[in-house]
């Protein structure tokens, strides 16, 4: 019933609808065409090891190059795509494009790093999910351990009884899962011990208040302690200041992402950063000048 409601949601709008709603409705029409018109592209945000400053992973983030409006961010169009039932096809496109990019980096001799992809509950919960993922990996000759599937804590809440089995299969296939935006989902923590769940990403809303906000500091330390005892690897999101970096490093957080180190970048920029003839050793943090 909930699904039908969502699908028909736009029917109830009247000519008096707010400009905001009208914009959403137009967005919906255009979103349907965006895939076939090739208006989506990916950017990649580095994830660094806090201790060494080395780039150990990147996360693929979707961008919609709108013909008139320019770049539209996922926060605006992903919820619309979910309501319209378009999110599965979009997620599939993202995975295909990501695996194609991994293959291209490999062929160009870029040192192999982990690449994370955001997956919606709609696709993760679909019976075809694991098959789709492993077929895409195979078609691009990408080894499963290179991929990290990110699922938000709130998306986990919407998943059904098949979750355990899906995670088991992913685990058997050597595909890791991260719980994204952790701390915002108001859910039980039972899924932290599911097979395949290897990473926990601390939501930016907690990092923002560090180190000054005593509540954020206490919650962050508790999340780090818990994930450490469960054997999970923690990644903090949205690190913007040196002081946040220092706090998280001292509290035992393993990895971090944020504008302090790098904005999301084009594939070629990632390649240049990781390329071995780029100065000596591994790339270190804040090589990238802040932009946008
Ligand atoms: P997320 O997976 O938690 O991704 C992190 C978001 O925080 C990204 O926004 C990133 O640009 C932004 N960010 C990173 N560092 C900082 C920082 O230091 N400060 C601030 N203020 N922001 C930072 P973006 O790209 O707009 O994506 C927003 C959300 O949209 C993502 O949150 C993810 O949930 C979703 N999303 C993005 N790409 C995809 C996709 O391909 N498929 C699906 N299903 N969802 C996606
Ligand atoms: Mg993510
Ligand atoms: Mg996140
Ligand atoms: Mg987030």
Question: Would you mind describing this structure in some detail?
Answer:
By secondary structure, this protein is an alpha/beta fold. It is built from twelve helices and nine strands. It has helices at 2-7, 19-34, 74-83, 87-107, 121-124, 129-139, 153-157, 163-172, 204-207, 214-229, 242-250, 267-274, and strands spanning 40-49, 55-66, 70-72, 114-118, 147-152, 176-182, 197-202, 233-236, 255-256. It has an eight-stranded mixed beta barrel with strand order 1-2-4-5-6-7-8-9, surrounded by four helices. Strand 2 and strand 3 (70-72) form a beta hairpin. Helix 4 runs parallel beside helix 6 (129-139). It is globular, with a radius of gyration of 19 Å. It starts with a helix and ends in an 18-residue tail after the last helix. Ligand C2E binds next to strand 2, helix 3, helix 4, strand 5 and strand 6.
């Amino acid at each position: 019933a909930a699904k039908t409601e969502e699908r028909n949601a736009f029917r109830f709008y009247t000519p008096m609808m707010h400009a905001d709603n009208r914009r959403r409705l137009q967005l919906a029409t255009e979103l349907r065409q965006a895939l076939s018109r090739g208006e989506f592209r990916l950017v990649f945000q580095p994830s660094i090891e806090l201790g060494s400053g080395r780039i150990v992973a990147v996360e693929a983030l979707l961008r919609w190059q709108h013909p008139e409006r320019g770049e539209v961010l996922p926060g605006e169009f992903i919820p619309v795509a979910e309501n319209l039932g378009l999110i599965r096809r979009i997620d599939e496109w993202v995975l295909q494009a990501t695996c194609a990019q991994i293959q291209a980096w490999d062929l160009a001799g870029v040192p192999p790093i982990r690449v994370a992809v955001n997956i919606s509950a709609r696709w993760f919960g679909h019976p075809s999910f694991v098959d789709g993922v492993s077929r895409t990996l195979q078609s691009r000759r990408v080894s499963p351990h290179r991929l990290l599937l990110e699922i938000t804590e709130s998306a986990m809440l919407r998943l059904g009884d098949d979750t355990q089995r899906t995670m088991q299969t992913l685990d058997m296939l050597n595909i890791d899962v991260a719980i994204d935006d952790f701390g915002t989902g108001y859910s039980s923590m039972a899924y932290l011990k599911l097979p395949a769940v290897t990473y926990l990403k601390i939501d930016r809303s907690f990092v923002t208040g560090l180190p000054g906000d005593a509540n954020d500091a206490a919650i962050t330390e508790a999340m780090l302690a818990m994930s450490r005892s469960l054997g999970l690897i923690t990644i903090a999101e949205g690190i913007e200041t040196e002081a946040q970096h220092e706090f998280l490093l001292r509290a035992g957080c393993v990895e971090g992402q944020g504008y302090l180190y790098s904005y999301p970048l084009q594939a070629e920029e990632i390649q240049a950063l990781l390329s071995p003839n780029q100065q000596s050793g591994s790339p270190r943090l804040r090589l990238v000048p802040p932009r946008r």
